[in-house]
Amino acid sequence: MTTVAAYAAPAAKAPLERTTIERRAVGEFDVLIDVKFAGICHSDIHQAREGWGTAIFPMVPGHEIAGVVSEVGPGVTKYAVGDRVGVGCMVDSCRACDNCRAGLQQYCVKRPTWTYNDVDKDGEPTYGGYSEKIVVDENYVVRIPDGLSLDVAAPLLCAGITTYSPLRHWNVGPGKKVAVVGFGGLGHMGVKIAHALGAEVTVLSQSLRKQDDGRRLGADHYHATSDPETFEKLKGTFDVILNTVSAPFDFAPFLALLRTGGAMVNVGLPEEPVEITLSSLFGNRRSVTSSNIGGIPETQEMLDFCAEHGLGAEIELIRADEINEAYERVLVSDVRYRFVIDATTI
C-alpha cells in the first residue's frame, strides 16, 4: 500500500478538503501513474453532492486523468516507466461478456468498475484522479500521443470520448448536419470533433454570448435557443443533435429540428426525470437515444484522432485549493471550457 495526498469530499455536499488515501500495491498487471493533471467534470459535482443517488464517502472524484507511468507490474507488456498515459471513467469490467469482448467495456453486462465512487474487486472503494498517484490495471489505461499536451489531454478522457463515441456511431462526417446543444465542457469538444470529422456544425445555445468562441472552434452556425425564430428557421435540418445539457428541458422543439430518420443523442445526464411527448417523435421517424463514454479501444482511437487533428480541450488550469470555487463556477457556466487541476498542487 502507498499513502498519497488527495482532495476528497468527506460527506455529501461537503466542501472538498486535502487528505490522504491508500493506493494498493502494484500488482502483476498494474501500472502506477504519477497524476499530472485531472479535469473537473460536471459528473464529479453530481456525485460529490449525491445528485445521482447515494454515494460512497469519503469520495475522491476525478475521471479525466493524465499522467506519467512511474512503476509497472512484472506482467505488464503495454506500458513502461516514463510513458504518458491517461485513465478515464472506468478502471475495470468483467472482461468476459459480449460487450467487454467487443471493446465496449462501458456497457459491461455486469457493470464496469468506475474510477471513483465505486467498489473494486478487492472490496475497497475506488478513488479518482484528484490525487498524486493512481494504480490501474494496464488494460484500462490508454496512451496519450506525443502531439497532445497532458493538460489539454486530461479532459479528453471524459469530455472527448463522451462526444467522439456518438458522433462516430451515428456516422457523422462530410455531408452530415450536426447540432450541438450546449456549449460548455462537453459541447465545445463536440463542436471540435464534429468539425474535424467533416460535418456542418451548428451550436444551439441559450444565448449568443459564446458565439465567437463557437465559430473559432469549428461551428459553421450559432443560434440562440432563447429566440423562437431559431426553431422555425431550423425545422427538419439536422441528421444528428448532440445534447450535452445536464438539465431537463422541453425536447419537443428540438426534435422538430431533425430530418427524417434523425437522432437526438443525449450525453448529459440530468438529476431530474425528463419528460418526452411521444407525438414529437412520430412526424419524421425521429429517435431519442443516448451514449455513455466509450470503450478502451475507442478511447485510444479518439486520443489518436485528436492528436492527428490538433484537438485539445480549452482549459483553465487551477490549483487544487481552488476546486471548491471551481465547482461553484461550473454550476453557473463560468468556465471556458474545462477546469483542470495541476496535480503538483495537491
TrEMBL record:
It is an enzyme of class 1 (oxidoreductase). It holds the Pfam family ADH_zinc_N. Keywords: Metal-binding, Oxidoreductase, Zinc. Its cofactor is Zn(2+). It catalyses: a primary alcohol + NADP(+) = an aldehyde + NADPH + H(+). Gene3D superfamilies: Medium-chain alcohol dehydrogenases, catalytic domain, NAD(P)-binding Rossmann-like Domain. SUPFAM superfamilies: GroES-like (SSF50129), NAD(P)-binding Rossmann-fold domains (SSF51735). The keyword ATP-binding does not apply. GO terms for molecular function: alcohol dehydrogenase (NADP+) activity; zinc ion binding. Its EC number is 1.1.1.2. Residues 14-341 form the Enoyl reductase (ER) domain. The keyword Transit peptide does not apply. PANTHER family: ALDEHYDE REDUCTASE (PTHR42683). Belongs to the zinc-containing alcohol dehydrogenase family. This is alcohol dehydrogenase (NADP(+)). It comes from Streptomyces shenzhenensis.
